[in-house]
Each structure stands twice: as C-alpha cells, then as structure tokens.
Amino acid sequence: MSESTASRRRRTRVAVVFGGRSSEHAISCVTAGSVLQVLDPERYEVLPIGISTDGRWVLLGGEETAQLAITEGRLPARIDETSGALVTMAADPTARELTVHEPGSVPKALGEVDVVFPLLHGPYGEDGTLQGLLDLAGIAYVGSGVLSSAVSMDKEFMKRLLASAGLPIGRYLTVRRDRWQADPRAVADRVAQLGFPVFVKPARAGSSMGITKVHGPGELAAALDEAHRHDPKAVVEAMVPGREIEIGVLAGPGGAPRVSAPAEITVRGGHEFYDFQAKYLDGSTDVELPADLTEAQLAELNRLAVAAFEALDCEGLARVDFFLARESPDVEPHWLVNEVNTMPGFTPTSMFPQMWAASGVSYAELVDGLIAEALARPAGLR
Question: Domain of 183?
Fold first, then answer.
C-alpha cells in the first residue's frame, strides 16, 4: 500500500448535510458553503450532501458547492433533484454508509461515514428529525441530540422547559391555527392581555422567518396568518424593552460548557427589529463585540447561558439569546432568556463564529473542534 493511499484512508469522512425542506433552505446552503471552504482536505474526506426542498438527498460536486453564497444581496439557488446524484442513507447501524443512485446505473455504495455535520436550520433538520435518523443509523453527528434539538426548535416547549428550570423568560402565549380560525375574538382578547406591541412568530422556524411586530389589534390577523404560513403553531411574545445580547456556548464530552464573549445587536435603516433582511441581506445590523456589560451583568449572563444549555440537554454548541430588560429608567435591568439555538447561523460573519473569534477561536478551529467533539461522543443514547 502506498503512503498516499494510506494517508487518504486515514482521513475522517465527513458528510456535510444542508438545504432541507424548511423556509431556511437558502440560509442553510450559505452556511454549508462557508464550512466546506475551511475543511482541510488533508484531514477530511468531505461529502457535500444537499437536501432539496421536497426532501431528496443529492451529492453535490465542486461547481455546485462553489455557488453556496449570498451574492450581491441574492440568496443561492435552491437545491433540487437535478443538482447532483441522488443519495440514500439506510437506518442500519451495521452499515453506516451512503448509496448513490444515478439514472441507468446500478446503485453504488459510497462507503461508511465517520461523522455528519448537519447544517440544516428549521424543521426537518434542526428539530431532531435528522438527528433521529442518524441515531438509528449509528452515525456520529455534530450538535445536540433528538430531544434537545426538538424542544429547542419549538419555542413553546423551549420556554416551558426553561421556566421549569427556574430560568427567567418573557411573557408569551401559544396560538394554533385551528384555534385562531375557530374563535379569533377569544385569541385576540388573550393577546391584548400581553399589551401591545407584541411579536408574532412561527413556533418552529428561525432566521426571523415569518415574524411580525404588531403595534395594535388591527394588525394581529395579518401577523398570525403570516406566522401560520410557516407553522400551524405560533407564539405571541410581549415586547421586552431593553437590549438584545447573544452569547455562544461550546461543550465537549464530559467537560463543562464554555461561553464566548457576548455580543449586542442593534439594527438601523428603518428596521423595527432584527428581521431577515437586516440579518442577511442589507447590512443594517450593528454589532458591539464584546457587549458593554458590568462585571456583575457578565457573570450572571454566563451563568444563565450555561444553565439554559444544560436545562435543554444541549450538546456540542448553542447560541443563547437574551434580553437585558429594563422596563423604566428607575428599575435595574435584568436578564430574560429569549431563545436557545442548537444550530445557529454558522457563516464566518454569523454571530456565533464572530463571538468565538473574539474569544480566540478561529472559524476553522471551531469547525475542527465540533467534529472532534462529535467523534468523541458515543452514537445513540448517552
């Protein structure tokens, strides 16, 4: 056996999985493009696998992966069945391999996969569904397991678990589409009790998809219809006056979670909140990194971030979003947990990598560390 052949066999086989069936398909593709660029070909044998919007898995080539970026404010093209060869994964822990299906050819085994880096955002990827498939297949993967991924994706149950662990959260209520359609007046009365303005969000979506700031009762119907277009379950949250602060958490097997430097997000240019356009397309977001906090505020933020990570049984990584709430100038500000994201935005300019870069961990080191952490964990129950 030649030295070069032995070297290739020693490389870790990484399947980078992205795209998916959610409304965050394009952002997932952008994230994958960034990760693929920093995976060292001397260390990793990489399989870029895109999931189309109808759920088909396709193996992409270099030409397709080179186009996974936001260009001049435009999102990349969506993956479909014409993007590459179709791929299947058997839920068989004794196989742990992918199979390629090309028209007119006998299915071909790609061989075993050592670890999957699932870069999907939203339902059918970040919500425990893909994690369950990988557990069935006995394949290691980056990030949280089934339960943590599912409850963190669902804002209602995330808030319930955080509250049951004694963590401070804002006031909210859940509105299912059938309940809204059956009795809109009763729902509107419940929302009014939160006080306006409120934010209406799909319960199981991210990237600020489908979110509306509602200033009064006359705007509620359109906001709920928009949220229900993404998810039959919506959450309505009371507006929290104060500052928006984010922080990253990393954890290795058996090790205590580590926190990054925190960042403060502010938006300008006519945006009333941190919406999709401000996040990704028009550069109207300002970031203060590290955020200007007192020692006491920072210590409490770090404690709450780790507590939220552990309350939801997270693994690998998470971004925890907070409000430093202040109802009036004569009231001391206090922390509220807003969300926990188990697969946060992951381009080099996304907040999670930026916060870790400010903490001394480069983008490439972050990717390498997450893969190493996933390989060190046992697959399945742990």
Answer: 172-238
